[in-house]
Specification:
It contains four helices and four strands; from the N terminus they run H-E-H-E-H-E-E-H. The protein is of the alpha+beta class.
Length: 100
């Protein structure tokens, strides 16, 4: 909710989620360290509908070795990380390219 690059890419993630979810795409965002109320308010203010998981104790961040945010992991249907992108997507096309 506080990270400017994260905030800037949210509309692109929402668009991709809406367009690709019927093809099997699952979007799971992870909020590190904030309350559910704060995340809910943020999601409503940006009209976001994908799932956000709360990592209040930063266990997931440690397990996946988040060094920078935003970081996007592309995980296949078998749970294997196929790609990792550090930094915000600058546009929808850049995000779509990473999905192919």
């Amino acid at each position: 909710t506080w990270c400017p690059p994260c905030r800037s890419e949210m509309p692109y993630i929402q668009e991709i989620y809406e367009e690709w979810s019927d093809k099997g795409l699952v979007v799971l965002a992870i909020n590190i360290g904030e309350s559910s109320a704060k995340v809910e308010e943020f999601m409503q203010s940006y009209n976001l509908s994908f799932t956000v998981l709360l990592d209040t104790k930063q266990n997931v961040a440690q397990k996946y070795n988040f060094q920078y945010i935003p970081t996007t992991f592309f995980i296949d249907k078998d749970g294997i990380i196929q790609d990792k992108v550090i930094g915000a997507f600058q546009n929808k096309a850049q995000l779509e390219y990473s999905l192919r």
